[in-house]
Task: structure prediction
Amino acid sequence: SAVISQKPSRDICQRGTSLTIQCQVDSQVTMMFWYRQQPGQSLTLIATANQGSEATYESGFVIDKFPISRPNLTFSTLTVSNMSPEDSSIYLCSVEDWVRVGRGADTQYFGPGTRLTVL
Amino acid sequence: GQQVMQIPQYQHVQEGEDFTTYCNSSTTLSNIQWYKQRPGGHPVFLIQLVKSGEVKKQKRLTFQFGEAKKNSSLHITATQTTDVGTYFCAPGAGKSTFGDGTTLTVKP
Result:
């Protein structure tokens, strides 16, 4: 399985500032995903990041607010811009890893997450 | 993405009791995955089901995929305190949908 690290693990930020979260994978992967998980809630996909192309954002998320970089096959960043207290959440990156089960299928491995608090 | 409904939202059991969580979809799923998230942790992949009627076991955990591939269940036999956490189902087609999760607490 892929080993994923995220930096920072947590941060407390002031309203109006921006934070860039880094995600590093120990192997080359095609697709990387960024999720948000608010306390006690499920995971919400923010965007999919493919190397060499623009990230694909889910409904309700825009590039100006959550710019994403994917400079190579092992690294991605997510920036939370112009933060407000509503952005307080855990941000998780994940990668897809093909596992040959039956007809073949995809599984996800998640990073440890970045716990963001916006004051 | 495909929508799934997961029930119950919470389940509190006495250690040694069984536990089941259900994941239901209104559409046919290509496959379904189950994840476990311990308190304060991140989701960890448990298993993937692909075939209609498939049943897979991992020690005390039994995973089932319905014949119509519209529902799935996770059953834990004789729960232990190490089973606490939130269990999520997720359709494999696309990454945008996770169930709301079932949070299991176990009383020693």
Observations:
- The interface with chain A takes residues 1, 31, 33, 35, 41-45, 48, 50-51, 88, 90, 92, 95-96, 98-101 of chain B (CB under 8 Å).
